[in-house]
Amino acid sequence: MVDDIVVVGEASIEAAVQTLLIDAKLLVEGAGATPLALLHEQSERFRDRRVGLVACGANIDPRILSSILMRGMSRAGHLASLRVSITDQTGTLARVAKIIGDTGGNIVETRHQRMFARVPVKRAELDVLVETRDARHAGDIIRRLEEAGFPTRRRSEM
């Protein structure tokens, strides 16, 4: 007999998969993470009660898992997507990379746009995905780049 059926949101399921993996070291698929998602969404419903969660199923697509982890890192401020305006000349990319490295950032991905971007000739846009300690650290990296003459802005969230 079923007493209740509850629906939880995709964002809560995604957060629950990430929480179980990072905090509990459990790899579960979305269906297996829904009990924790419900607990997060309706915490008042379970206040002052002992609750047991059944977390099951590890049948999760690696691309989905990767996406969940990367999106979670972005939301937590551990990934910053930056657009850096640079001159298109030898050594500029290396200088930007050095500043990011000297500031403690780790470049995960970079894309150098000079042909399709709307920038003047002899300039380019550099899209850089940087692993950071937190959002404040990302701000420090941006500040250092700008102090070195590289106008930088955060790109939209991932």
Using brief descriptors, characterize the structure shown:
41% helix; alpha+beta; 5 helices; Alpha-Beta Plaits; four-stranded antiparallel β-sheet; 18% strand; elongated; 158 residues
What's this model, at a glance?
The chain has 158 residues and is an alpha+beta fold.
Structure characterization notes:
The structure is a single chain. With 158 residues, the chain is of the alpha+beta class. It folds into 2 domains: 10-74, no CATH class; 77-154, Alpha-Beta Plaits. 41% of the residues lie in helices and 18% in strands. It has a 4-stranded antiparallel β-sheet. α1 (10-23) crosses α2 and α1 (10-23) crosses α3 (62-75). The N and C termini lie far apart (43 Å).
Radius of gyration: 21 Å
Total strand segments: 4
CATH superfamily of the largest domain: ACT domain
Secondary-structure element series: HHHEHEEHE
Instruction: Give the C-level CATH assignment of the largest domain.
Output: Alpha Beta
Shape descriptor reads elongated
List the total number of helices.
5
> Do you know the CATH topology of the largest domain?
Alpha-Beta Plaits
Structural class designation:
alpha+beta
**How much helix, percentage-wise, in residues?**
40-55%
Task: Give the termini separation.
Answer: 43 Å
- Average of per-residue pLDDT values: 91
Q: In total, how many domains does the architecture comprise?
A: 2
Poorly predicted tracts of residues: none
Strand order of the largest sheet: 2-3-1-4
